[in-house]
Design a protein that fits this description.
The complex is a heterodimer of chains A (434) and B (244).
Chain A lengths: L1 H14 L1 H28 L11 E5 L18 E2 H10 L4 E13 L8 E8 L3 H4 L4 E4 L4 H6 L3 E5 H8 L8 E4 L2 E9 L22 E4 H7 L2 E2 L4 E2 L15 E9 L6 H17 L10 E4 H7 L5 H30 L2 H9 L4 H35 L13 H27 L3 H7 L1
Parallel strand pairs in A: 4-9, 6-8
Antiparallel strand pairs in A: 1-12, 1-13, 2-12, 3-4, 3-7, 3-10, 3-12, 5-8, 6-9, 7-8, 11-12
Helix pairs in contact in A: 1-2, 1-12, 2-10, 2-12, 2-13, 10-13, 11-14, 12-13
Chain B lengths: L1 E11 L4 E12 L4 E5 L6 H8 L7 E6 L2 E2 L5 H11 E4 L11 H11 L4 H14 L15 H14 L4 E5 L7 H16 L3 E5 L3 H6 L2 E6 L2 E4 H4 L5 H4 L11
Parallel strand pairs in B: 3-8, 3-9, 6-7, 7-8
Antiparallel strand pairs in B: 1-2, 1-4, 4-5, 9-10
Classes of the chains: A alpha+beta (434), B alpha/beta (244).
Chain lengths: 434, 244
């Protein structure tokens, strides 16, 4: 019967073209607007490493003075070098890495390419396997390279194209701020969005082109391109010194299972307690361990204006639905006579309800199709904005399906009251008044 | 076929209580052709709506083809209406968007009848009323008489045991009315029970039995052999005028 009702709905469209077009347009406007903002939200709030985001954890300790401490206060987002190196040395997780952003002038001996500034990432060996960084050529470096402060680097595919014309450059030499390093590997287009592991330069831009062992970067005095927060009372000359009371390193661990987070958190608590007992930490143990999604939520990876636009668009969709309810009521109740005849011929109230819900749903699907076109226009408009995330505003298959699901659900919701009213039509009155 | 005993129908609003039917007794046997007459506002249409399960009644008993309908829910009433009853209305009540074939198909679809059987029944019903060649025509393309014939075909397609006709010739000229009446007589001669509400004494005279409804009470003229009893005309001080 549902297929039959679908055919009846199509016939009904032909009978009330203007009213139907108005309803389709109303739903399309609501769907187009909401899907534009939902798509932007979806892109920005997406899981950048879905297969293991629940096993990757960002670590926070609280080395600040006891002054201004209150229970539950959020600890600093980064670690001191001393703590990061201590945790790394203890290696309680299957994988762990510390990291910081940097910048430097890149050059190749004998190349016609003039030196240019590039964003760097100083990190440790586990960074590459932990974040599943794909390699086009070669590989990352080892823990031994970290310890030996090896002059090695991993470069991006884009940089490899620029410096070496895309050939396998492993073993080739590059210079960073005049220091010679050898290429260990070429990353194959890896740029997770949002950039979950470090959002200091933004969640959606600041793509890095050279990865250098942190120990090497410190040894060579490569430029740190991020902020440091020093919490001591004494002025600090070298914020990156081992004992400097400054936080500047992000620290990530990969656990074998998400359920291991409790054990690792306990380990961090014990570490803090030990540091407090040793007199380094003044505050009681105050640690955080957040997986990728929790960390992105905490860092508010989705810009506030996008959240606001999402709410406004959903509000607009509700307004459109309320209008659709009125239009559907007018359309359905204008057919009270036909409803009376159908009831006399054996239609139960439920059958009448189903018939009109199918009609509402069909209008919704048509509105969804037009809404898809409007959403495409809306996303194009978003891409013209100067926002850092603008270029990401594209609809994927999930959003495409959601457009129709949302349109269908919205129209069925809007159809509930009109269809209920239609099934309540008293046949006897209608048949006599025909 | 139709057995109503002491059936009452009261419409209530906040201010008034209107008695449309008062202890109506009526039994129609299988295969009968009964004409129901009465003045405007006497309760004829209310009787027909209750008989056709389009309205519920306030009190009394009503058995349709042996089924007590009083406690049936909407689904059960709809199914019973669909399977046992065919309707013919004064204003035809064909669905204007559907051609004759599709109009006749409406009750059969609610019966979940297979497509092949639906087609056979509709072709047969439309042929029976002389519209076999106009299946693809829309109601607006037909004369009033043809529309009423199409409405009769729609009722016949479901092979109802009981045909309820409400002023079936009220909107037709005398020639078309005669033709429709002959068709109803033919249908009745094949065994279908017909209850027809009419104002037309000539049409009523052609039925096997006449029932007169006044003030919501029925008097069987054939059985009583005379006019309605005085009781039927008695004024009811506590009630408003009955409605149709």
């Amino acid at each position: 019967m549902l297929v039959h009702y679908f055919h009846l709905a199509l016939r009904s469209f032909g009978r009330n073209r203007v009213l139907t077009a108005l309803m389709v347009l109303t739903i399309a406007l609501g769907i187009g607007t909401s899907m534009t903002t939902i798509t932007v939200y979806h892109v920005l709030s997406g899981d950048p490493i879905p297969h293991k985001s629940s096993r990757l954890f960002h670590v926070q300790l609280d080395p600040e003075p006891v002054a201004r401490y209150r229970p539950g206060i959020e600890p600093l987002g980064r670690l001191t070098r001393l703590d990061a190196e201590a945790l790394l040395a203890q290696a309680r997780a299957p994988r762990q890495a510390m990291m910081a952003p940097g910048t430097g002038a890149i050059a190749v001996d004998g190349s016609a390419t003039r030196p240019f500034k590039a964003r760097l990432r100083y990190t440790t060996a586990d960074f590459f396997p932990m974040f599943d960084v794909p390699f086009l050529h070669g590989r990352g470096w080892s823990a031994e390279d970290d310890a030996a402060r090896t002059r090695t680097a991993v470069i991006s595919r884009e940089l490899n194209e620029r410096l070496f014309g895309g050939r396998d450059s492993t073993g080739a030499g590059i210079r960073i701020d005049g220091h010679a390093l050898r290429v260990a590997g070429v990353v194959d287009g890896w740029a997770p969005k949002p950039k979950f592991y470090d959002s200091e330069s933004g969640h959606f831009d600041g793509e890095e082109h050279v990865f250098v062992p942190l120990s090497t970067a410190l040894d060579l005095g490569l430029e740190h391109f991020g902020s440091s927060h020093c919490y001591g009372d004494v002025p600090v000359n070298d914020t990156r010194a081992l004992n400097a009371p400054c936080v500047w390193l992000h620290y990530w661990v990969e656990l074998a299972d998400a359920a291991d987070a409790g054990d690792y958190l306990a380990y961090l608590g014990n570490y803090s307690a030990q540091q407090q007992a040793a007199g380094r930490f003044e505050r009681p143990a105050n640690v955080r361990l957040r997986d990728v999604r929790q960390w992105l939520d905490h860092r508010r990876a989705v810009p506030g204006d996008v959240r606001m636009q999402l709410w406004l668009a959903m509000g607009f969709l509700v307004v459109c639905l309320i209008n659709t309810v009125g239009l559907l009521l007018a359309k359905f109740l204008r057919r009270s006579g036909e409803i009376g005849v159908r009831r006399a011929l054996g239609a139960s109230r439920l059958e009448i309800f189903k018939q009109y819900m199918v009609e509402a749903g069909t209008i919704g699907v048509a509105g969804g199709a037009l809404g898809l076109v409007l959403a495409s226009v809306g996303l194009w408009a978003v891409r013209q904005r100067p926002a850092s995330y603008a270029s990401l505003a594209h609809m994927d298959l999930a959003m495409l399906l959601l457009t129709f699901v949302l349109a269908l659900c919205a129209s069925l919701l809007a159809g509930l009251l009109p269809a209920w009213k239609a099934m309540q039509v008293a046949p006897a009155i209608q048949l006599k008044s025909q | 076929m139709l057995d109503m005993r002491q059936v009452t129908k009261v419409y209530r609003t906040e201010l008034v209580e209107t008695h449309a039917l008062r202890s109506l007794d009526l039994q129609v046997r299988e295969g009968e052709f009964v004409a129901v007459t009465g003045p405007s506002g006497s309760g004829k249409t209310t009787f027909l709506n209750i008989a056709g399960l389009l309205e519920t009644f306030t009190g009394g008993e009503y058995r349709l083809d042996g089924v007590d309908v009083k406690d049936l829910d909407d689904n059960q009433r709809s199914r019973l209406r669909n399977e046992k009853i065919g309707f013919i209305f004064q204003s035809f009540n064909l669905i204007p968007d559907l051609n004759l074939f599709d109009n006749c198909e409406v009750p059969l679809r609610y019966r979940r009848m297979p497509a092949n059987e639906r087609r056979l029944r509709i072709e047969e019903a439309l042929s029976q009323v002389g519209l076999g060649s106009r299946m693809k025509h829309y109601p607006a393309e037909l004369s009033g008489g043809q529309q009423q014939r199409a409405a009769i075909a729609r009722a016949l397609a479901g092979s109802p045991r009981l045909l309820l006709a409400d002023e079936p010739t009220g909107n037709l000229d005398s020639q078309m009315a005669r033709s429709v009446m002959e068709l109803l007589e033919d249908i009745n001669s094949r065994g279908t029970t017909i209850v027809m509400v009419t104002h037309d004494p000539e049409l009523a005279a052609r039925a096997q039995r006449n029932v007169h409804i006044v003030d919501g009470m029925a008097t069987d003229l054939e059985r009583d052999g005379g006019p309605a009893p005085a009781a039927a005309h008695r004024a009811h001080a506590e009630a408003e005028l009955p409605v149709t």
